Amino acid sequence: MTKDNIFKNIISDPIMVERGYLKEDEVDDLSINDGGENKIIKIIKIAVSGVVDKDSETSISRYINQSLNS
Amino acid sequence: MELIKRLKERSPEYSAVYENLISIFTMTQGGRAGSSSDSSAWAQGKYFTTKYEIFMYAAFLGIKSKYRLPLTNNEKNISFWEIKNWQPVELVNYLIMSILTVSDIDFNQLEELSEDEVEKKITDLKKILEEYANGGFDIIRAKYEDNSTYFENNDNCFLDLLSNL
Amino acid sequence: MIIEKIEIENFMCYSGYNIFEFCEGINVIIGDNAYGKSKLYDAFYWVLYDQIFVSERKEFVNTAIVGSELISDKVKYESVDGEVSASVSITFNNKEQDRVYVLRRTYTAKIEGGEVVKNNNKNSVLIVIDKEMSFLSGSLIDDENQKQLIINKILPRNLKRYLWFQGEQVESIIDFNDQGALTSAINVLSNMSYYETIVNIAKRTFDEVNNEYNKKLRNQSRDIEQSVKLDNQKKTAEQGHRNTKVYLDQTKENIARAEEKCELLFSKVADAEAISKFNQKIKKAQDELAELKKLLDNENSNFIRALFQKKWLLKGMNSIGKEYEEKFFRYDKNKLEKINKKQILSELTSGTIETRLPINVPEPIYVKEMLDKERCLVCGREAKKDSDAWKAIEELLITKKNTADSNVNDQIFKNNFREEFYMLYRNHISIEDNKMPFIEEEIKDSIICRRNLKIKIIDLQNIIIEQNEKIHEIIGDSSIDCKSAEHILNEYAVMRDKKELYILEKNKWERQIADYILKIEQLNTELGDLVKGEIPNYLIEKKKILSDFLDIATSTRDRVFNGLVSRLENEANVHYTSMTKGNQATRGKIRLKKLPNGNYMPEIIDDEGRVMLGYNTGNLILIKLATIMAIVSASSTDNKVKYYTLITDAPFSVFGDDYTIGFCKAVSMVYRQSIIMSKEFYKNEALKIQLMNDSDINIGRVYMIRPSSIECERDNRNNLSTIIESLN
Fold it and tell me: Are A14 and C197 within 8 A, CB to CB?
């Protein structure tokens, strides 16, 4: 699976719409290359990218934390 | 003096040649007293519980068939129980009545005879009984030799034998 | 890659030089048990992995341990001093790139004085030749890593167990009871590990932010002591929450197992109940039968006795009775006449006529007339024969005679037997009246009664036979017997009760979990209340986002996994359908059912989604094979396995002929190349012909193998080699 595949799988999870992060029609339009405004989408991208690139879990967590701290 | 009472004191005889035939159909017993239960007779495939029973049967068969067959002297004869012990009494009496009927004894004359002569008549009566029984046994034997399965597969065989006349 | 050929030299039972050539399609090696099929499989496996499969231990064992047993006994026997080697060489052809790899593995042992020199830890040697173009002579690969890369290209690690397997391994390759097995399989289809890792990261980051948040809460607290206390309570509650979750999972597992057992038993229960019912019917019938037989025995013995007791012996003797009657009356009449004569004479001679008769009793001759006329001449009333009146009149006659004669009798007659004759007469009358009329009827009744009993007995016996047959039918179809029928019913009841208990337990845990969640919330609120300052917004937001992230990651992982299971299921059904095409009877389709504990169990369902079959070995093996095939085909382009060869000696014997051909068809459709070892085609000539001529089967090379020495000489393996015969 490509990074994009994994990313799309995650954002198409029903919880995203349920908890108000995305609207239903927005789901299909997004891809991993798009700059997402949403904080959660940003960290999803960081996670997917890092995992497929085989970065260490520690460093991926750090990036996520950094992203959310600002 | 009583006629029938004294007749009943006697023990009739049958020819030894029928011993085997008798044992086929009669319960074997220890001694001459027949005290086995009825159900075991059936279970053993026997029809008569005592010798006198089959003797009575043979006698009636002979009388009904009008078949009187004297016993020959050279055959060994076997005697068994006195008539007075036979059961049921009504049948025994009927049998005696039948013997009296088919005999040519004149009742009135009988009453004129002396004691010895009466005894002789009684002996005659016993002989008549034996001879009719002998005839009956012969009929049974003939049937058995002709077709032994007649007795094997047919519960009513002895009854039928009486009727087939 | 296609396997072009395998050359086997002095390996196990293959003494000397042996070669099998293969092409695309389904290649079949036919031979009976112990003819060398497994050893051929071993040869393939040994080259790539330096191991052979030891059947008794059901596991792979290294060359180092097996040692010189690898080498053919014949060649060992034939050399006295020197070296002997076993070697196997496989030629792989990557048709797309026209690139050929030759892998040859050799194991050498020393012989001294006819005995093999034992040397432990001696290894085999693998040579890999890479021919960049098939016509080139090729270069030797020295680097071990390179060798492994090539081997992995030929047969990737994660696929090998699904492509090269012995029949005995099918059971364990995809053990549905083992969650790991299914997960490995799913991982072949798609790399789930990414999702797992993302979940782990989400968990980790959430835990971190949670701790930070809680710390902040404590620090901002007006009452730090209280905060710490509440925090500790919260930690306890959270631990309790976690523990209870574990208990809940365990209980769910128990429910799953109990359900599984129930389902397994359920199909048997119906049979067991039926058997039980039949047995009850049989018992009832047998009891009735015993009763009837007793009755019949009774009737029979009564029948025999009746000759005497019911006087049936006298059937038809009425005429004798009548004769006696006549004789008796004649006798009586004569006697009376004589008496009268004598009396008259004596009276005449003595001059007195005495009337000894009572005045009101008529003369005997009048009495006789009355009897004959059947009418009382005194009162004029009718007295039919044998009526009470008639008998009364008769009495007179006799009484009269008795009273009249008793005195004179002794004088006139020597003997008086009259009483006895009369007794006989009464006896005859009594029997004639009371017994004889009924004899015919009684006999008939008894015969009918016995006949009916016999008919009833035969009917009952037939019923018993019928019920027994029905039981045998059921026993034949299923695997229950009479004894276990009761056992199954009990077991089923027990399992059901257990399941109920577990469900109650589950509810308890769930309630507890809800309580914990409430408690934690409560504590959080209290902690929040104690906070005098404010938690920075970014922290609150961060916590929420990461919490949601965790949920989303988990949910996604589950969704993807389930989706892959679906895909696997569908693919497996494609194969299952083509394998069972020849057998219309009970096909159904495979469903992988998710259990509460997360495992998946396969079942066969019909068109309406109802579970069809219980487990029997044949079905389960088919499902497993279909699933094994699905794992590789689902992850390949077009669902056709182009780059890897299937090598197996599938346990055809478990299925039966129809499925064997179905299996071969399915395999030849899915795999570009396959090598199948089989003994089914060895015994069954018709099947072999079908295999080689069926247009649906893309048949490759077909070989027949057999050992050089016959069975009884096999103990001496020193002469053993394998004869290979090509059939096409």
Answer: no
Of how many residues is chain A composed? 70
User: Chains with ≥3 Cβ pairs under 8 A against C?
Assistant: A, B
Angle between helices C657-670 and C617-634 (to 10 degrees): 10
The number of folded domains in chain B is 1
User: What is the ipTM for the molecules in this complex?
Assistant: 0.94
Supply C345's token pair.
């004479």
Q: Name, of C240-254, C365-379, C592-606, the range with top average pLDDT.
A: C240-254
- Say what the pLDDT of residue C518 is: 92
Which of helix, strand or coil describes residue C384?
coil
Closest CA to C198 of C549, C655, C459: C549
Q: Which amino acid is at C185?
A: A
Domain that holds residue B98: 3-163
Its CATH architecture, for the domain C2-192+567-726, is 3-Layer(aba) Sandwich (3.40)
Residue C121 Rama label (left phi>0; alpha psi -120 to 50; beta): left
Structural fold of domain C222-311+435-532: Helix Hairpins (1.10.287)
| Least confident segment among C52-66, C350-364, C495-509, C675-689 | C350-364
List, for residues C84-99, the tens digit of each pLDDT value: 888 999 999 888 777 8
From C485's Cα to the closest Cα of chain A, the distance in A is 49
**Chain B residues whose C-beta sits inside 8 Å of any chain C C-beta:** 1-5, 38-39, 41-43, 47, 53, 56-57, 60, 63-64, 87-88, 90-91, 93-94, 96-98, 100-102, 107-108, 110-114, 118, 155-156, 158-159, 162-163, 165
Instruction: Give C331 to chain B, closest Cα distance, Å.
Output: 6
Greatest Cα pair distance, chain C, in angstroms, is 174
Left (φ > 0), alpha (ψ -120 to 50) or beta: where does A66 sit?
alpha
Domain coordinates in residue numbering, chain C: 2-192+567-726, 222-311+435-532, 318-434
Cβ contact C559–A9 (<8 Å): yes
Residue C436 carries which side chain, given as an amino acid letter? Answer: M
Measured between CA atoms, how close is A16 to chain C, in angstroms? Answer: 7
Rounded to 5 degrees, φ, ψ at C479 are -115, 25
In three-state secondary structure terms, A35 is coil
DSSP state for residue C609 in the 8-state scheme: S
CA angle C148, C151, C156 (to 5 degrees): 105
Residue C598: count of CB within 10 angstroms of its CB: 15
Q: How far apart are CA B65 and CA C334, in angstroms?
A: 31
CB atoms near residue B35 (< 10 Å): 10
Evaluate whether chains A and B are touching (3 or more beta carbon pairs less than 8 Å apart): no
Task: Please determine, for residue C621, whether its predicted confidence score (pLDDT) is greater than 70.
Answer: yes
Interface test with C, best of B44, B89, B108, B156 (most C CBs within 10 A): B108
* Residues forming a β-bridge with C111: C82, C116
Summarize pLDDT for C654-710 with one digit per residue, the tens.
Answer: 666 667 888 888 888 889 999 998 887 777 788 888 888 888 888 889 998 888 776
Q: Which residues are registered as beta bridge partners of C247?
A: none
Tell me which residue of C675, C682, C641 sits closest to C34, measured CA to CA: C682
Q: If we measure between CA atoms, which residue out of B158, B164, B160 comes closest to residue B56?
A: B158
Residue with tokens 């049967």: B57
In Å, how far are B119, C31, C303, C425 from B42, measured between CA atoms?
40, 68, 9, 34
- What amino acid is encoded at B127 in this protein? K
A67 touching chain C per CB within 8 A: no
pLDDT of A10-59, one tens digit each?
988 888 888 888 888 877 777 777 766 788 888 998 898 888 888 888 99
- C265 close to C486: Cβ distance less than 8 angstroms: no
Which among C201, C541, C548 is the nearest to A61, CB-wise? C201
Contact C91, C4 (CB under 8 A): yes
Tokens 């103990």, residue? C715
